Amino acid sequence: MREKSFSFKKVLFAFAALLSGCGTAHSSPQETPLSTDQPIVQKTEEPSSVMSPNSHETDDFTASLIRFIEDKGYQNQNYIISPTSFRAALALAAAGADSDTKAELLTAMGFSSMEELNQWYSSVAASENRFNQWLKNAADEFEENKKYYGDSEKAPDGAFRLVNSIWRNTKSTGKLSNTYQAYVKEHYGAVAENVPENRITDAVNGWISENTNGLIPKISNDLSSSDLLLANALYLRSAWIDSFDEYLTREGDFTASDQRIVKKEFMHQRSEFAFYEDDETTMVCLPMHGGVNALFILGNSENAMEKLRSASLETVDVTLPKFETETSLSENELIDFCKARGAELAFTSNADFSIMSEEMKLYITDIIQKARIKTEESGIEAAAATVIAMTEGAAPFEEEPIIKVFKADHPFHFILFTDNGTPEPLFFGQIVE
Fold first, then answer.
1. For residue 59, what pLDDT is reported?
2. 418 in a domain, yes or no?
């Protein structure tokens, strides 16, 4: 079943609906230190029991961003975005804003206070910590029992990195306040660097490349005109709990959104996954190591929240294309999104970033995000970087068991989300060609 118009315009992705997560019927010994990798499909559990105070706002922010990006021309294109990276960069700006500027930014982000914002960031950081703790435990277990593994077995590999930084151009007239620097270091781990105008572009690009494992080698060719840069990098590399065997990968036909037939390499496996299907929608959720999940959706995605609540653990024949896609948002899309959600002052000469610096009369001139994803038989590698550019001065104009089948040989969406109390949508995207 295919739909003619492939869009999420009608969908409000309430990620609280994913509270039951997705899992297989079995897991490797390396996963036992963390319960997040266990099968947890629970159709009868009420989500309110584990919903955080700001979950509704999180859902609304993500759904609004998806609709906005598709309305900007991405509806019939491959794309990937990171709501998490975007929000984290905005958090650095909100922390330095005051009065109505702060209130507008918080509202645009879906929060009523800095306390709620910090609670959200802490929950994402907790998922990062759980992933890294799982990786350490798995590596220790592998090393301890290496003699029992075959020679071809490799040590567990993966990465989950969420980092922030601040870059002050030394050509600027003022300095950042000690209060602001202490706050962002405490809550977001961000440290401010003072860099000369002729080095700031290379410095920021180098930091992004290092923290995304080279997946995003640079975010801009020239950042030297900005007085201050607020940067976030998000990097995820994780293996499927049930990996795809390379010998089963075959070339096949993929029907694009415009009905063209294109050749792709399709991965294949049969295992137990959280699965849902009706006359309009087919969904499968593939768990990954370290408490991360990948949801793939074919067909009509309306009412996805209710449908996923009804997912059951099934033996599923999964066929997925190997794909790699990247997206660069650098044409004011993210500024326009903030404005559409009520944040106006931050982008004008009337902006109040006095907590950040009383000497520098700053306003936001640009928000850039680059994101990229690669999938293969062993797992997924995805990264995003978001940079907020700020400038001083006046603002410009602005039996065998029944086998279910999930065959992604036509347009589909994908979501990488954390498997915690209130799942965080780290990456969202679609493949249409």
1. 61
2. no
